[in-house]
Structures are given as C-alpha cells and as structure tokens.
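Open question from group meeting: does this chain pack into something compact, or does most of it stay loose? Before anyone orders reagents, we agreed to write out a predicted structure and look at it together. Recording both the input and the output here so the notebook holds the full record.
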Amino acid sequence: MLPVVALVGRPNVGKSTLFNYLTQTRDALVADYPGLTRDRQYGRVKRGGQRNFFVVDTGGIVETELGIDEQAMRQVRVALEEADLVLFLVDGRDGLNVGDEAIAAHLRRIGKPVLLAVNKLDRPGQTLAAHEFHALGLGEPHPLSASHALGIDDLLDAVRDKLPAEDPGDSADAAPGIHVAVVGRPNVGKSTLVNRMLGEERVVVFDQPGTTRDSVYIPFERQGKPYTLIDTAGIRRRGRIAETIEKFSVIKAMQAIEKAHVVVYIIDAREGVTDQDATLLGMVLEIGRGLIVGLNKWDGLAHDHKEEIRRQIDLKLGFVDFAEKYFISALHGTGVGNLFDAVEGVHAASMLDMSTARLTRLLQDVVAAHQPPLVRGRRIKLKYAHQGGSNPPTIVIHGNQTDEIPGSYKRYLGNAFREALDLHGTPVRLEFKGGENPYQGRRNPLTERQIRKRRRLIKHAKK
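Structure tokens returned:
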C-alpha cells in the first residue's frame, strides 16, 4: 500500500499551498486567511523521487486557553490515525509560539514519526530562523518556502527516508492474477456485485450505507484464470462523513485503486450520476487505472428514466469517454457475466507492449493529419515516440518546444493514439521531452564593425 503523510499545523501556515504543490493540483483552497481549510483533502504526491505516497491536508489546529480546541482536532485526529508519517508545518515568519508548542506536545504523545518543516522562509538569509524551532524537540527543522518551491526537494528526501520500508510480502501485492477494485458511493451494490461475481456470500451485504468498513482482498479463480477482487468501502462527500471509522474509507479506497489493475466503478442507476460520482471517477483517472463503469439496479427502471441516465452519462462523464459502460443488476445477475470479458480486455489494453517504431510511425501520421500550432512564429516539432510504462499505457514524445504544447493538442494526441492502438477502457498518459538548445545562454561576440554601428545607433537614439 502507498504510505500516507498527514500535513498538520496552526491555521495559515501554508499547509494547503504545500499540498497543492506536492500533488500538482489546486484541490485545496489557498488564501491569506486563517482557517480556510475545514475538511481533509487527499492527494497523491507527484513531485520528485521514485517512491510515491498519499498526502492529507488538514484544517488548522487552534490552541485555546484550555489547550487544543477539541472541535478543530476532531477532523485532524482521523488523519493522524491513518498516517504513517506526520509533517508538522510551522510559520518561520511568526517564529515559535505557544500554539506550536501545544501541537508538538500532542504529536509526541501519539507516538507517530514526525518531521518538522519551517515554511515561509523565502530568502536564503532567513533559513537561520528555523533554528529556534529546535526547542520543540521534534528533530532537525527543514526550512522551505511552499509558495516559492524552495527547499521542498530536500524535504521530500527526508519524508521518504522516514516512511516505513516497503513490504514485499504485502497481501495485496502477493494476491494472484488481475486485481479488480470495485469502487463507488455507499449502498450502490458493490458488495452484492462482488458476491455475484464470486458465486458465494463472501462479504457482508446489508441495506444500509457503510456496511463495508475496509477494503477486502479476495483471491479466486474463474475458468482457470486467477483474479483478486477488492471490495472497497463506499466514499461519500466529506461533509457527510460523521462516524470516525467511516473516515478511514477514503484513504483505503484510494489505496485499493492504486493497487488495482482494473477499476469497476458502480453507479446506482436509480439515483443517477451524481457530482460525487464524477469526483471519484476523476480520482481513478488521475491514478491512471483501467476503468469499467457499471450502472447497477438497471432492471425495473422505466424507459424514460433509462434515457435520462444515458443523457447524464454523456453530459457528466464525458471526461472518461474511454471507459466501457455496462447496464447490470448485481442482485439478479443480469449483465454481470460480461464484466469478466471486459476486465480481460481492459487489462490487456492497459498492459499493451508498444514498439518504438510503431509509436513513431503513428506520431508522424497523427502530426501529418493535424499539425501542432505555431509558438512565437516557430512550429512545434514532434520527432519520435516510445513507450514509457504500462497501467496506464505511457507514451513519451520527444521534440522541441514541448513545454508550449497547448492542452487541446495534447488531448488530440491522446485520443488519436488511443483510437489507433485500440486502447479501450484505459487512459493514455503522455509525457513530453524537449531537447536542450545548445545555443541557449550563449551570446555571439560582436565584431568591431558591429560595435561601431551599435554606438552610432545609441548616439542617434539619444538625440
């Protein structure tokens, strides 16, 4: 499982800014106003290093006359419980204060590994201000500036050194065959579908949201082929998460998606496609897993209702148009058998081996059909492509001015590669590599004649 790092600290110390930088998103609201973050934000770190991890942004911990405010700690406590490492962020401009000391005392009591980071140290001379935080007794303070991306690489190295060692015998890794995670909101029929696919009652099914509290890994065989089904806890909007135990579901489901080869996302057809479904599918897309969308409880719906659900799918789920959609009934078994064939096809597409020669030919054909745009009068040139990984299929494209490629053209390339390679059910990840300009930073020396001409022009301009 990917480890979890919790960001904690007083309000307005820069936790959300650091979260957004690490995850390369804008999921956490950022403003120069304390207490803006009320709920936890979950993200996957995409910056530096080979070992990834999840990071959790928490609301600011408020210290009162009676100690740490219990209401503020309620949302932080869950993040601390599920974290493998706590990243304690303090404000280097404000200096050490009683609030930091109260939080440090609490962190020492919970017994989790803690890293101390001193934020808002924008200039090199300010790093000396970090030394006063030695008084907190949490080890060496790490100076940084989240808003200016200073010192973060050193902090990430320290974080990865502190994370628990990867366990090669992890139960999820050791489980055989294709890993299929069944994901969705609470009470949409995930456990019923798992039992139907297994042909036996292996997980608890009850007509009440929240019956499944943890991700359950179930190895089994079908027609001689090994699989591992992962039944995940339902994820609901953070504003509706009341019980402490249910708050663990979010990170458990994210870890299950990370471990899966294929995700079967279940939507309750009677309720339709909700905004929360779109958010969770965006999480699957970000992690880059093969995707199958199952519209459950389809039987018994009126014709008009079915047509409305189809319109909702086109309207709200256009960003995952590559995913295969199936209309099923987990309770009665209608359409469930087709899911196994779909899982096989999506897994094969996500693990496809693509040769450099084939990808380069495809790139040339795609570029010939629709040229990249001009940038400052110069045409972007895409030279060749090769495979950079699988699950999801990753294509690395080399050229010049690749940093200037607009998002619309990147989407065009991704869709063209997916169609040409018949990659149904899996996202395609594109990476762009630009060659270094050998003349960048070099200035041609002026000749004596050019120098005289320049002086004449300057003299003329001054008149």
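Observations to bring back to the group:
The mean pLDDT is 80.
The chain is about 35% helix and 20% strand.
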